[in-house]
Design brief:
Layout lengths: L28 H10 L7 H31 L8 H5 L12 H6 L6 H15 L11 H5 L3 H11 L13 H20 L10 H11 L4 E5 L6 H12 L7 E5 L4 H12 L5 E2 L18 E6 L32 H11 E12 L10 H10 L3 E6 L12 E7 L11 E2 L6 E6 L5 E2 L5 E2 L2 H15 L2 E2 L9 H15 L10 E5 H6 L7 H4 L11 H32 L5 E2 L2 E2 L4
Parallel strand pairs: 1-2, 1-4, 2-3, 4-5, 6-9
Antiparallel strand pairs: 5-7, 6-7, 8-12, 9-13, 10-11, 14-15
């Protein structure tokens, strides 16, 4: 949870309180909740409706935690402490005034001014918790002019969410985080093109996190959307027995409503992050001008046009030593911005349109050549099409490394010296269709790509730099190192190729993996050609005979119905 007010109250003697058990959550409750909530949408567009639903879920979640903490305070310390903010902050619980609690909203759900009451509640939450400043909609419900009965019905639906942790969930944050993740994905799907402005498909985010391994340090996303990259980074850390206290989150988002979504998304998961004081344009209002990040994960807008005027940002420090990115497409402006934000050992993984790998328009080829000559490109991955809600065109992943020497003392996993080398992976044939228009990378796909990259990097555990408190993390790293040592990296035709700078220069500095990996080898099944040809010919003759029999049967049926074949002006009748 974002930073709460500092603890200043002194704890009195405590009384023990028994822990309460909660009802088991139903499997698939997110889908049921979505169906119920979506039926109530009415005339409100998805782009607006997501803010309504997610704001109410957020209010329900923090209210449930508040009530649990309030009961514990009464049981442990007495009634006189229930309105002391510090007694909530010490347990990372937001303090809520009475008219900002879910119980108050639920009790007044049938009132005609319920929209005003919700706006007042959200304002009260922000006012009493500085860490949520700018996170919640401001007079949003009143301005939308929602039908009071539909809003009341939505409140009743959300009231059925039991946000308190149970035996199926590790924490309340896991449970509500599940709901948020599900709803963000569903809203992105329903909004189509607009959905990509705040949501990156989970399989792509997981792949980037697993590739760059953000164990500790500063993580940055310059166009963070609803914060999915941060969420997945911390999931990666937790799944590898790391400590999320060892990372700090920095981000920026241009759209104000999406900025609020990101702050809520982090808050419901207990994640502290610095997303800047306000939403703002990353190029013109950089919220973190002095940041040097250890890890950058991003999904910038594809092929963003007219991102600056001809006379703007011409001599910006972020592209020092490189040609100025063209005004007609921001792809290389995003790349240069991220490179400028990396620390001396930093790594970046980001999504871009395929054109970024080969474009020579308006000097983009010159910028790419300079990036390659500076030996910053560590890995390029061509992804399959149909992974995004926004577009069905294929996209690619860039992985930039400021230090390929493999001697980063801060990193638990040392890597071999990869100077002058770049790994190309062609994953266009991977993925599984999840519906008629959308594909996703499976866990096996992600594991294969990730393992290929990590084996190629030659990861080696630095036990001499591991600290005692990192024992679990070290054990996890040892397991991965052991698994990787069982295999030596090899180029695989049609899939992966380790190329040199000379290879890339020979290909005119184009970074499209297909140019390097070649075609997949044809597997020889050992059957002689003559045998195959004989078997295939006999199969063909058999199918041709069956076709003749079917033609004759159809002809007879037509004749029986009086539609015999006409020849020389007269019907033919073979019967």
């Amino acid at each position: 949870m974002e930073t709460a007010p500092k603890k200043t109250a002194t704890k009195p003697a405590t009384k023990k309180v028994a822990k309460k058990t909660t009802k088991q959550a139903q499997v698939g409750f997110e889908e049921s909740l979505w169906d119920a909530a979506n039926k109530l949408r009415g005339s409100v567009e998805s782009a607006e409706y997501k803010h309504i639903v997610l704001s109410l879920i957020f209010l329900k979640f923090i209210s449930d935690k508040f009530e649990v903490r309030q009961k514990a305070i009464i049981a442990e310390y007495g009634d006189e402490y229930i309105d002391m903010v510090d007694f909530y902050a010490m347990d990372n619980v937001f303090y809520l005034p009475e008219d900002a609690r879910w119980s108050y909203i639920q009790a007044n759900a049938k009132q005609g001014d319920i929209a005003v009451k919700i706006d007042t509640a959200l304002h009260g939450v922000e006012k009493n918790n500085k860490s949520l400043a700018g996170a919640l909609p401001d007079n949003y419900f009143s301005r939308l002019g929602l039908d009071a009965s539909k809003l009341s019905a939505l409140i009743d639906t959300i009231n059925n969410i039991d946000t308190i942790a149970n035996q199926n969930e590790k924490t309340e944050e896991d449970l509500v985080g599940r709901v948020y993740e599900y709803f963000l994905g569903k809203f992105a799907a329903s909004e189509g093109k607009g959905g990509g402005e705040f949501y990156t498909p989970k399989s792509i985010v997981t792949l980037i996190a697993d590739m760059i391994e953000p164990f500790e340090g500063k993580i940055y996303d310059p166009c963070c959307g609803s914060g999915g990259m941060f969420v997945q980074s911390l999931k990666f850390i937790n799944s590898h027995n790391g400590n999320q206290k060892n990372v700090s989150i920095y981000g920026q988002e241009y759209t104000n409503t999406t900025y609020k979504l990101a702050k809520m998304n982090l808050a419901v998961r207990g994640i502290s992050g610095n997303l800047g004081d306000v939403a703002g344009d990353t190029f013109f209002k950089d919220q973190h001008p002095d940041l040097k990040a250890d890890y950058i994960m991003a999904n910038p807008p594809f092929n963003q046009k007219q991102w600056r005027a001809d006379n703007e940002l011409v001599d910006d420090a972020r592209w020092a030593g490189y040609p100025t990115p063209p005004t007609g497409n921001a792809n290389y402006a995003w790349i240069m911005h991220m490179i400028s934000k990396l620390s001396e050992h930093g790594t970046a993984g980001f999504v871009l349109a395929n054109g970024s790998m080969s474009s020579n328009t308006s000097g983009e080829g010159d910028i790419r050549q300079k990036i390659i000559e500076n030996d910053l490109v560590d890995c390029m991955i061509a992804l399959p099409g149909q992974l995004f809600y926004t577009t069905q065109i294929p996209v690619c992943l860039w992985f930039i490394s400021k230090d390929k020497r493999g001697n980063n003392e801060k990193c638990l996993l040392k890597r071999r010296d990869r100077q002058g080398e770049t790994l190309f992976i062609d994953a266009r044939e991977m993925g599984t269709m999840v519906n008629r228009t959308l594909k996703e990378l499976t866990n096996d796909d992600i594991a294969k790509i990730t393992q290929t990259y990590h084996i190629w990097r030659g990861e080696e555990l630095t036990t001499e730099t591991a600290k005692p408190e990192s024992a679990d993390k070290e054990q996890s790293a040892q397991k991965e190192q052991s698994a990787n040592k069982e295999q030596e990296y090899e180029d695989v035709a049609g899939y992966c190729k380790s190329a040199t700078l000379a290879d890339i220069k020979a290909n005119d500095y184009v970074l499209t993996p297909g140019r390097y990996v070649g075609a997949a080898d044809i597997i020889d099944d050992g059957i002689p050609f003559e045998t195959k040809m004989s078997e295939l010919s006999q199969t063909l003759y058999s199918q041709m005979n069956q076709a003749d029999e079917l033609d004759n049967a159809i002809r007879k049926n037509l004749q029986a119905l009086g539609y015999g074949e006409e020849r020389d002006g007269a019907k033919r009748n073979d019967s």
